[in-house]
């Protein structure tokens, strides 16, 4: 036998042979961008209002601006600017065609870069057109973006936490609502906005406990439980709003606001200073939680176990990890995080609780989670994208009262964030890798 | 460590999977648990590993009774298990899978450097070449199994349970596994080896316990006669070798040319496959699971989204047609996974027998089904295929695996076929049913139908095939005669070309299997 050739086992990863065959749908993306680019060129550019300007306020007087290096206002010709930007968008589309024509499987990075260039140019073209004859304060736009992103981001993180462990969390909406409700109620009764802040996640955990009980404990279909819980949350909070809170709003539903914590000097940075460094504690908490959760999920023992439970619960069980306990904990933790997002809606913005005030933000948060590929950082970026659309919509809504210029009906503007969410999610669905055991209850024999 | 199972009983609903089973595993022995599919071997081991709670009986370790409420307890007691379906997280790396549940940490964070070192140390001990940073899903099945083994060993298992470990291996890999088992035994680890393959049992065991229908029916010595073991396992005399009449191939019926399939990510799963099948012959597609066989059958049936190339049946192109059109062209299909792809569990036997024909004559029209014809059809096929069922209207889920498979085969075979494609025609089926189903396939061949069989079991391939095509990573490595040497086939399943495999075997690359066969020990 010693002369026999030894047959060695092959332990090396399988080399994947990639096909040179183009997927039949390869033209969808460049065709879409080209059509959108042409649309921008015609509607925003060629058919814009001739001879007027669009102005962007970039720097405020109090901002850091050594030697006035940055101009306070950028003024461009509405038509000229929009045409130029549309052309850039069209060039990006052309590059996409070339990219796809050259190779059947273009690199994802090049593709994403071009899509990003296209998106930014297209949106700027739209903005330049829509603010013809008027002025847009970019600093306020960005500050609004961050504020609006907070509930979405917290909601999306709630989704990340529970879906990474394998429980579908449609109930983000209800968790946000309970958080908002709890923050105001407890804050009002105790007279301390800080106690309200602490109460929000605790109250929201009630929703999480119900979700975990039905989804993990009783193996109920998780999407149905989520939807039912959202309806329950609306019903319960509306009842209390209509009874107790309306009877004595001073005691039970007083508008309160978390103080703004301004970080000196940094807050004076032009454009982003106010957005990043002149916010309340919830905004700072959002950054901290996103960073902390990223490290926790991907670098710690806890995270490895959570992901194992969401991917292959039986494998986790065979190495002694308590699958259902992990899921319970994660759903509760997630709902607590969503509760903080709910607090943003009331004590974060200084308004009293209102009926159904989460207004679909939980579902947008869900979209942000999917678009962010179940990753905390991705979820944050997606939340920021949707919030930008929302913030822009709010800015434009206040401006449309001004004379002349382009006017878009307010209802259409309100649709903006949802349209963005729809397209963004449709664009990535099928490419996102969902945790393999997401939505499947784990039943032991 | 001495492990004893005393009177273990486990029932699922009314079904008794384990009936008062006694088993003693002495320290440092390889103890084989031999039994047919569904005999209750895996259930017993899942009880031992704390995955199932026994309804009766006791687990005793070194004289002390213990109870395991979850696998963590079993592991702490020194029991390790390599499951038939790997318990590995596909998107994790080898190192991450290795330490899961037992993670080294440093300053609160995972200490992946330590995990990598652990992988390297243990795999060096057994001569494995595992990359700690490779994703498990990218590894070949054999390597995934080695990850499972080192995972169990890293937890200091003193009893290692291997549940049907050879099902996914090539013959040479099986040999290597046996070498590892012996090495472990010599280091003092006891091994429980679960299998239904007689030859493996004879090659490696120190002691054999045979289980049939949830009961221990006997203990045997590895020197026992193979036929004796087989009759102990099955409960009656079985003829191990089918007497197969040579084929009389006719004209070319199916001509497949350069068939290519890629998945959503653009990975080629079927890479330029060409072959032909003649009337009245069986072409068997051999290969380790996951090398493109599924994609091949699905491409022929119109179940794959983008297929390039051509497959002509009697000159008619099949590629680009819908599944319905392919079935109408006279293709009978037996999918590889009967519970997922072949049967609707809650439908009756009669309904499952016409699933592919329910909307056309004689069983129905576009609007309605002809319930009487469907019932009569079932009443005719149930005795013909010896389907053991209470009645034609019983849900197919109440049948045993072997009888479910007979339903699937009956559905494919009851009409006049232009081509039969059967994937894993006897997976999870007991020996008696295997004989019967093989007979039916060969009968169909003798009627002149071209037959394509896909099987990962080399035994089945050599028994049925007139010609054998071996698939490896989406390609056909070569087509050889049906009586080709098993070792050559084994090497081809590991990626050797026909010539290279024949040369290696001629130079002495023989498996234990074939050596035993040479010595007349096994058939």
Structure description:
The complex is a heterodimer of chains A (445) and B (523). Chain A folds into 2 domains: 28-133, no CATH class; 146-429, Orthogonal Bundle (ABC transporter involved in vitamin B12 uptake, BtuC). In chain A, the strands form 2 sheets. Chain A has a 3-stranded mixed sheet. By secondary structure, chain A is mainly alpha-helical. Chain A contains 16 helices and 5 strands. By secondary structure, chain B is of the alpha/beta class. Chain B is built from 19 helices and 22 strands. Chain B has a 6-stranded mixed sheet, sandwiched between helices. Chain B has a 6-stranded mixed sheet with strand order 18-19-20-15-21-22, with helices on both faces. The longest helix of chain B has 16 residues, at 171-186. Chain B is globular, with a radius of gyration of 24 Å.
Features:
heterodimer, A: 445 residues, mainly alpha, ABC transporter involved in vitamin B12 uptake, BtuC, 3-stranded mixed sheet, two-stranded antiparallel sheet, 16 helices, 64% helix, B: 523 residues, alpha/beta, 6-stranded mixed sheet, 22 strands
Structural class of chain A: mainly alpha
How many strand segments of chain B? 22
CATH class category of the largest domain in chain A? Mainly Alpha
Alpha-beta classification of chain B: alpha/beta
Please report which band the strand proportion of chain A falls in: under 5%, 5-15%, 15-25%, 25-35%, 35-45% or over 45%.
under 5%
Low-confidence stretches of chain A: none
Strand order in the largest sheet of chain B: 6-9-10-3-11-12
Which oligomeric form is depicted?
A: heterodimer
- Assign an overall shape of chain A: globular
**Main sheet makeup of chain B:** 6 strands, mixed
Shape of chain B: globular
* Content of β-strand of chain B: 15-25%
Give the strand order of the largest sheet of chain A, numbering strands 1, 2, ... along the chain. 2-1-3
Q: Report the total helices of chain A.
A: 16
Q: Element order, helices and strands of chain A?
A: HEEHHEHHHHHEHEHHHHHHH
